[in-house]
Amino acid sequence: MGAFTMGSRKLLLLVMILGLCQISKAQSPNYGVGRTPTAEEIRKLDISIGPEGKELPPGHGTAVEGAGLFVRKACFGCHGETGSGGPAPTLIKSDGKTKSPYPCLNPCVNDTNLMAFHSPYATTIWDYINRAMPLTKEGTLKPNEVYALTAYILFKNGIIKEDEVMDAQSLPKVKMPNRDHLALAPEWKHGTPRLQGYP
Amino acid sequence: MSPKLSDRRKFLRNSAALVGLAAGAGVVPSADAQMSPSEAATKDCKDSKDLIAYGERSHYVKSIRIPVMERMSPDEFGMTFHVLSPIQDSVGIITASSLHYVATHRGSYVPDINPQEHRLMIHGMVDRPLIFTVDELKRLPFVTRVHFLECSGNRARATHKNVQQTHGMTSCSEWTGVPLSLLLKEAGVQSGASYVVAEGAETVKGATSLPLEKVMDDCLVCYGQNGEPVRPQHGFPLRLIVPGYEGIHNVKYLRRIKVVDKHYMTYNDYGHLAADARVAALNRQVGPKSVIIFPSGDQKLPGPGFYEITGLAWSGSGAIRSVDISLDGGQTWTPAELRSPAYPMAHTRFGFHWKWDGKECVIMSRCTDELGTVQPTRAEIAKYWNVPNDKDLQIKGLDNSVFPWRVASDGSVYNGLA
Question: Could A194 and B318 be called an inter-chain contact, meaning their C-beta atoms sit closer than 8 Å?
Fold first, then answer.
């Protein structure tokens, strides 16, 4: 009887261990380390917006709303009243006449390479405002506000019309000036030089 | 630490730094050769509890980092931009973490992260999204590897005076961490995935798109640097190391890896794209590169005689196979000796016996990596792009060109591009 008891105990232990392994396996199959994030945790942390805009949240905004926010959120304090001439990178092409009192912050972003002209996708502007602005208060803007500020920058640079509504459907479709002029690096392979034929 | 002692130490440090600046850190000392060894070693240092607990370098050692000329660090907002390593004073192949160059995403604050609260999430096109604490990552199989980092801003200009300015935005560390491939296998990468987006936890949440092929090949999620936890300026508590890729891809304060099916065009990414795919390739991976750090700009040789020319070589494509030295401005080349292990994607130290005859000359180094790629001269680069090789030559992509130092007949060393 004693042996039987021991046996069933062992069996129980084995079942428990297997059970634990099952639980771990659902997370990290080989090492049983880490845990599965909840859908809410992923939603909160995942701020990456790809060029197709698949992750864009519901909401909408226009340039008119954005103009008001540009003042209310104090964007002008760093980027200048007209979106240029401030200590922070240029957002809106300047009139070319007014001289900025600030040196262009290195790496210099001015009329020649500002985001709306250089980035091939409008989603990149939405993504960056959402993840990084306003500096030290990043993450506080609501989706409608990010759509509106993006629309404002696009309108003031002559890319969309003033009354165009930016949302998850329209924003990825905006044809950016540099859309067809930027190339990706070729596919990367282990053990190949960075560029075949380069001296 | 008592406030008094702390103040005193700060004072010592500051005055040492000032003396270093005033004296010009690079002059070859000709000092007290007449003093006998017994006379030279009579002073003692009194140790303190603080120095027993955590040591510091001799106050005679004055080597310091300096912010790049173009933008002060810290700036008026307290943000750090780019800080140059005193590469002219380096020995061996490891850069002390306190002297490692610092670069941030277009200027940002160094975050104060509690490692107990920090998490790394892996999600996107995976079967099992996962969250790890730093302690959990430390339970996993790890590797230790020596790798250099280099910023795309590390390009010599004619206005630079010394090697800290021309080449101070590269450094090399011993990194310890978990291969990202191991973590991605745990998560189960789905078919159709081709890139990952790696993201940091600092103010601007710097993010970069990396080819999945590279990530599975050799990228590391590092918690250790040079025998201690990665320092805050370098990404504490977790930093992604992408061996051989430009510095910005080596995401600090790593908090998230998202597996995706295309290049994600983040703010940092699009600055690296170019109209020409060849330039985009040259923007991504560091080519074979080397520089002589002794003798170099702002240094002065006391007179003709024997000197050991030394410097560093590195390549983003693998290990350094050989280094050549030219003493005649690139007309003839003689092999140097490799004086350290030649690890893949790591600084490698070279040395070369030189008897200087006291005549003006132009010295330079060039390296060859394990793929047989030779570090190009500016002339070769100009020829490739079919543009004139003059002072206005703008090198496309990351600049790995051969760099000249001019040694004047009085022993002074100048930037050979000037």
Answer: no
User: Per-residue pLDDT for A7 more than 70?
Assistant: no
Predicted local distance difference test score (pLDDT) of residue A25 = 42
Of the candidates B180, B178, B193, the residue with the CA atom closest to the CA atom of residue B126 = B193
B 358-387 residues with CB below 8 A of A?
371, 373-374, 376, 380-381, 383-384
Tokens of B390: 């003059």
**Beta strand ranges found along chain A (DSSP E):** 60-61, 166-167
Give the ipTM of the model, two decimals please.
Answer: 0.85
Q: By three-state DSSP, how is residue B350 classified? A: strand
Report whether B218 contacts B285 (CB < 8 A).
no
B268 part of contact set with chain A, CB < 8 Å: no
Residue A182: partners with Cβ closer than 8 Å, 6 or more residues away: A120, B270, B273, B274, B275
In sequence order, the β-bridge partners of residue B109 are none
CA dihedral (B169, B170, B174, B176) positive or negative:
positive
Please judge whether A195 and B121 are an interchain contact, meaning their C-beta atoms are less than 8 angstroms apart: no
Residues of A in contact with B81 (CB under 8 A): 106
Distance CA B418, CA B415 (A): 6
Angle formed by the axes of helices A143-156 and A63-72, nearest 10°: 110
Mutate which of B251, B255, B266, B367 to test chain A, going by most A C-beta atoms within 10 A? B266
- Do the Cβ atoms of A111 and A93 come closer than 8 Å? yes
Average pLDDT over residues A85-89: 89
In this predicted structure, which of B180-189, B197-206, B217-226 has the lowest mean pLDDT?
B197-206
CA distance to partner chain B, nearest, from residue A102 (Å): 12
Contact B284, A187 (CB under 8 A): no
Residue contact B203–A136, C-beta within 8 A: yes
Is pLDDT at A5 greater than 50 in this prediction?
Answer: no
Cross-chain residue pair B317–A27, CB shorter than 8 Å: no
Global pTM value = 0.89
Q: What angle do CA B70, B73, B74 make, to 5 degrees?
A: 145
Higher-pLDDT residue of A188 and B105 is A188
Cis peptide before A37 (omega within 30 of 0): no
Identity of the residue in B137, B203, B207 whose CB atom sits nearest the CB atom of A135: B203
Beta bridge partners of B175: B145, B225
List the structure tokens of A27: 């997370």
For the purposes of burial, counting CB atoms within 10 Å of the CB of B262, is it exposed (0-12), middle (13-18) or buried (19 or more)?
A: middle
